[in-house]
Amino acid sequence: xxxxxxxxxxxRIGSLELRNPVLVASGIIGYGREYERxxxxxxxxxxxxxxxxxxxxxxxPPPRVVETAAGMLNSIGIENPGxxxxxAVKVPIxxxxxxxxxxxxxxxxxxxxxxxxxxxxxxxxADAIEVNISCPNVGPHGMRYSTDAGNAxxxxxxxRPLTRLPLIAKLTPNVTRIAExxxxxxxHGADAVSLVNTFVxxxxxxxxxKPILGTVLGGLSGPAIKPLALAKVWEVVQxxxxxxxxxxxxxKPADALEFLLAGCVAVEIGTAxxxxxxxxxxxxxxxxxYVRGMRxxxxxxxxxxxxxxxxxxxxxxxxxxxxxxxxxxxxxxxSS
Amino acid sequence: xxxxxxxxIENRELTRGNFLLTLRVPRQFSKPQPGQFVHLRLxxxxxxxxxxxxxLEGFFExxxxxxxxxxxxxxxxxxxxxxMHPKGRELDLIGPxxxxxxxxxxxxxxxxxxxxxxxxxxxxxxxRLRERKRPHVFLFGAKSxxxxxxxxxxxxxxxxxxxxxxxxxxxxxxxxLLQREWEEAGHTPDTAEIFTCGPHGLLHAVADFAxxxxxxxxxxxxxxxxxxxxxxxxxxxxxxPEHDGAGYPAMCVEGPVYDATAVDWERLP
Lengths: 336, 269
Ligand SMILES: Cc1cc2nc3c(=O)[nH]c(=O)nc-3n(C[C@H](O)[C@H](O)[C@H](O)COP(=O)(O)OP(=O)(O)OC[C@H]3O[C@@H](n4cnc5c(N)ncnc54)[C@H](O)[C@@H]3O)c2cc1C
Ligand SMILES: Cc1cc2nc3c(=O)[nH]c(=O)nc-3n(C[C@H](O)[C@H](O)[C@H](O)COP(=O)(O)O)c2cc1C
Ligand code: FES
Fold this sequence. Notes:
The structure holds two protein chains of two kinds.
Chain A: E1 11-13, E2 16-18, E3 22-24, E4 46-48, E5 65-68, E6 71-74, H1 82-95, E7 100-105, H2 110-123, E8 128-132, H3 149-159, E9 167-170, H4 178-187, E10 192-195, E11 199-202, E12 204-205, E13 210-211, E14 217-221, H5 226-239, E15 244-247, H6 253-261, E16 266-269, H7 272-275, H8 279-293, H9 319-335
Parallel strand pairs in A: 3-4, 3-16, 4-7, 7-8, 8-9, 9-10, 10-15, 15-16
Antiparallel strand pairs in A: 1-2, 5-6, 6-14, 11-14, 12-13
Chain B: E1 2-15, E2 18-25, E3 37-41, E4 52-55, E5 58-62, E6 65-73, H1 77-84, E7 90-97, E8 109-115, H2 119-131, E9 136-142, E10 158-163, E11 170-171, H3 174-185, E12 192-197, H4 200-213, E13 217-220, H5 251-254, E14 257-259
The complex binds flavin-adenine dinucleotide, flavin mononucleotide and FE2/S2 (inorganic) cluster.
């Protein structure tokens, strides 16, 4: 291949084909309009919208954001216009976007998730649905469905029959064994999982002796969480066969590549975009360069191409470990 | 609003910890209004991670050269890094952002009430009022004379200074100056309006003053921001229930200038 050839960056998430594996994460770019003068949406794979809830939410009391070391805490509380407002105000905006539109939804219970999935499906502008079962900022229900495999199964089982759109379950990293939750989603109809949502965190102002965020606790994002996010991604990649969409602290093209090499089919760009709105586009360029550098034609050659020494790097019991165990059993069975 | 690269023409310490930053901006930077702000990327190495919002102190055009000015104080990691940037260094900014001050169509006397570094957007406004030949009075209070800067630019309007330590001007609060000005000049809600910027405690007091007298009053607020363009919903300003639509309007798009009597100062951190 000559270096001038454009590598093929297309990837698939269920039935959705993305022109390249770079998305913008939920809560970062609104519904596309807010950043339209700063981001060339035609150059990236797609956006995930701000999460939509059934009823409008005003969000949490201020302050809602604070910068911490190499990251930030947020406690937005999913401020959004609700499903009706989504139909009235956001659908017309999404219709015209020149990239894939993945609509994020969050329900307080299974019935709400069902209503949201039906509503978003009917809106006709969604190319996929990201099922946000991992928000740390909306009270106890926010993470209920992604901190317990049974709950995750209940949501996925209920919403799967309601749409043919790809369903992407967005997971929280605030669990001991994320692979279990990912498996529950995969086994009950998720076309993909995306991770990580933010890590629960807090900050205290020692001068005033008050917590800095209005809600005391918030979610940590940004470069500080990238190694933590990668470890969670790696655990999930080994556990499930469905596509994994990775995010957490991506601040330069090489960071995006780390997630692809670890096995993600796509990445989502979050916090670092606030400083650098051109980041998603430069990640696309960086990935293309990398594919060329490998003298390959397609991004498929990068996905999961991390070189792991035999028997190393397995985090807890995941798919690979189970397969190994099976293979070992089969081998020993065959020799007896 | 645009994302542009600008160049530092001057980054000078006026008084201890207080700087004047002059940036050359390209043509794509549209003409800003007093009260609007820019979102500055202070470094490209991720420290600090987020941009920082700064009000414009002025916009200047000479021939083909366009420049903006910012007054800033060193209060933390970002502003410390900014203070070390040399002349000639490039900075990436997004702006102009937000909604600025609205001068009444009806000819009124503008009372500009500045507290500390809140003076910046009001200096811009004062220049605009002078251009429009609108009567205005500039009231500027700070802790001490070291925090009183920029006011030499105030021409065409009356100027009253106050310091907490009495080192210059009236010994006391700028709020007293406002009270005195109001009474001595015989202003009424029909003949005067107030524009204010400074610490939220001062703005709250000015808002109460305005509410008691039924006078129009706009305040420019501050608070942490992430995106600066209305996407992240990280910069809410609580409004009083009677002004509240569905909760918290984002300061970066609907502000930073608000009808001071609409702000719910009790719920503001
Ligand atoms: C619309 C707007 C206009 C502003 N205009 C000016 C100006 O003209 N001149 C000027 O000096 N400053 C201005 N500020 C405040 C300025 O943005 C902050 O001082 C700056 O972000 C602090 O960054 P830092 O990294 O130095 O401090 P940090 O290390 O981030 O924080 C230091 C301290 O400042 C507080 N702080 C952090 N961010 C903000 C913020 N955005 N607003 C208020 N307090 C904050 C923190 O709570 C902390 O106590 C403005 C803010 C806004 C929102
Ligand atoms: C200000 C802000 C708002 C967010 N809002 C949402 C949201 O509404 N729904 C959601 O699923 N994730 C939300 N997130 C989480 C991000 O989508 C992402 O999972 C997380 O920030 C990690 O990526 P990053 O480190 O690149 O930012 C939000 C993050 C931030 C910083
Ligand atoms: S800073 Fe993001 S909405 Fe205002």
